[in-house]
Design goal:
Length: 234
């Protein structure tokens, strides 16, 4: 999935007020850009880090661009634009690249299955039935190739897991899919040290039959590349 428009390199000056980032471009300009990530961005927001951004001037847009990538360690990049997780996973599902979920030719996005329930990212349907899929964007690298989710206490994530568990217990196929957008992560686990409730709920969901998958999406300044499945350690 190539970036359009192409990314521009710069240096992170600071991230603040959650959704704002001051970036000094390599050409010397310093701009305030949108930071499209609601998490704590642990290990992804160090001042002085090499970053890549898109610049787009559109009528009605308050900020001139968006922060996309950050170098978190030498030759390790993370995509901090969390909304891109759903876009790249949708493309991967349509192309049949996520092998455990490849048997469902019909894909619907943003689906609510129960009155008053959460909207899940995808509902896949095929001859074998249907599978609801919730996607979580992962950028938290703990070192030695290990990644974790979430990077802050996630009440919304906890709610999703409770609902996925109930769906699985009712006979509905369900999947929690970690979209790992950090090139240094080679395995996944719940971040019990940050949100122990989420970790416990994830294990309960897996025990109830919710499929827990992690897929590596390799970020580069040219685009996002589907790289393959990663092990999940519960």
């Amino acid at each position: 999935m190539p970036y359009q428009p192409e990314l521009i390199a710069g240096t992170l000056v600071r991230r603040y007020k959650r959704f704002l980032a001051d970036i000094r471009l390599d050409d010397g300009r310093e701009l305030t850009l949108h930071c499209p990530n609601t998490g704590s961005m642990q290990n992804c927001g160090e001042p002085g880090s090499q970053v890549w951004v898109t610049l787009q001037q559109r009528p009605g847009r308050k900020l001139p661009g968006t922060w996309e990538l950050v170098e978190t360690a030498p030759e390790e990049l993370a995509c901090i634009h969390s909304a891109r997780a759903n876009s790249v996973i949708a493309a991967a599902l349509e192309a049949g690249l996520i092998i455990p979920l490849a048997g469902y030719p019909a894909i619907r996005r943003e689906v609510t299955l129960t009155p008053g329930g959460s909207r899940f990212d995808f509902l896949l349907t095929g001859e074998s039935g249907s599978c609801v899929v919730e996607v979580k964007s992962v950028t938290l690298a703990l070192g030695e190739g290990e990644g974790a989710f979430p990077d802050a206490v996630s009440l919304r994530g906890q709610k999703h897991l409770r609902e996925l568990t109930l769906l699985a217990q009712s006979g509905q196929q369900a999947c929690l899919l970690f979209c790992v957008m950090h090139s240094g992560i080679r395995s996944m686990r719940p971040a019990d040290h940050i949100d122990p409730v989420y970790g416990q709920l994830l294990r309960e969901a897996a025990a109830a039959g919710v499929r827990v998958l992690a897929w590596s999406i390799k970020p580069t300044p040219l685009g996002l590349e589907v790289a393959g499945q990663l092990p999940v350690k519960l």
